[in-house]
Amino acid sequence: MPNKHGDFIWYELITSDAGAAQTFYGPLLGWDFKDSGTPGMDYRIFSSAISEVGGIMALTPEMKDGGARPFWVGYIAVDDVDAAAAKMKAAGAAKHMEPWDIPGVGRIAFMADPQGAMFYIMKPLSAPDSPDAASQSFAATEPSEGHCAWNELNSSDPEAAKAFYGDLFGWQKEGEMDMGPMGKYEFLKVGDDRGFMLGAVMPKPPQMPFSAWIYYFRVADIDKAAQQIMAGGGSMIQEPVEIPGGEFSLVARDPQGAGFGLVGMRK
C-alpha cells in the first residue's frame, strides 16, 4: 500500500563527518551504506536487511556558517509540497528552504513548526516498476531492526503542536502517560483506518535548548547497543529505561553531537 499524506517516509542525518558517522552507526544498527551517486554531494544511503531506511549528508560550508550543527531530521509525505508549505507558513511555521525538485526522487521543502522543530515535507516520485511501493523507513506495523520504531516530538508547546500537526496531517491523540513533573506523554496515531501509532509529543525538557524531533531506531539488544554507543565515542543522555510493552529505550548523542534514540529488548 502506498504511503499516505502525513506518513514518515525517510530519515536523514546531517553531520560534520559522514565517514565517522557511517563507522559509528553501521555496527550499532546493522546498516549497509552506498553512495547515492548525487553529483557534487557526499550523500550516503543506509539500508537494513529489508530496505533502504535513510541517508547521511555532510554539512555544507553554508550550513556551518549559518550555525548548523549535526542533527537527525525526518521526512513526512504530503500530497502537494507547495500547498502544504504554504498552509504551514500560514499556521506559523517557517520555511528554511523553499520547495525544490530532486531529479528522479521527488519534490521537498525544509520546514520548522511554530515551536521550531524541523522536518522535511516530500512528495516522492513513484518508481516506474513499482508504483505502489511504500517506504519502510518507519516500521509502523511490524518491528524491524535498523528501522525507526518511534517518532517523538519534544515541544515547548505540546498543545499548539498537536493542533498544528493534527490540522496538517490528521494525526490524533490516542491516550497519555503521566510523567509527573515532566508533564504528559501523549501518544499520536494516524487519523485514518490504518490506525497505527506513529509516536508521541511531550513537553521539551528544560535542558533541551529548542523543540526537536527525536527518532528511535530498533536494536536487538538495548544493553549491548548502549555499550556500543560508549565504545564508539558517543554519549548517553538517558540510560535504558523500561517503556510500556516491556521493551527499553535510551537517548544518546553520536560522536559528532547528533541526538537519537534506540528501542529494544533487554537480554
Main attributes of the structure:
alpha+beta; 5 helices; 267 residues; 41% strand; 8-stranded mixed β-sheet; 2,3-Dihydroxybiphenyl 1,2-Dioxygenase, domain 1; 16 strands; 2 domains
Explain this structure.
There is one protein chain. With 267 residues, the chain is an alpha+beta fold. The protein has 2 domains: 8-124, 2,3-Dihydroxybiphenyl 1,2-Dioxygenase, domain 1; 148-264, 2,3-Dihydroxybiphenyl 1,2-Dioxygenase, domain 1. It contains 5 helices and 16 strands. The strands form 2 sheets. Strands 2-3-4-1-5-8-7-6 form an 8-stranded mixed sheet, with helices on one face. A hairpin with a 3-residue loop joins strand 6 and strand 7. It is globular and about 45 Å long. This is VOC family protein. It comes from Sphingorhabdus arenilitoris. Pfam families: Glyoxalase.
Uncertain runs with pLDDT below 50, 5 residues or more? none
CATH class label of the largest domain: Alpha Beta
Query: Structural class, judged by helices and strands?
Result: alpha+beta
Helix content: 10-25%
Q: In oligomeric terms, what are we looking at?
A: single chain
Element-level helix/strand string: EHEEEHEHEEEEHEEEEHEEE
Largest sheet: 8 strands, mixed
CATH level-four homologous superfamily name of the largest domain: 2,3-Dihydroxybiphenyl 1,2-Dioxygenase, domain 1
Number of strands: 16
CATH topology of the largest domain, by name, is 2,3-Dihydroxybiphenyl 1,2-Dioxygenase, domain 1
Spatial extent as radius of gyration: 18 Å
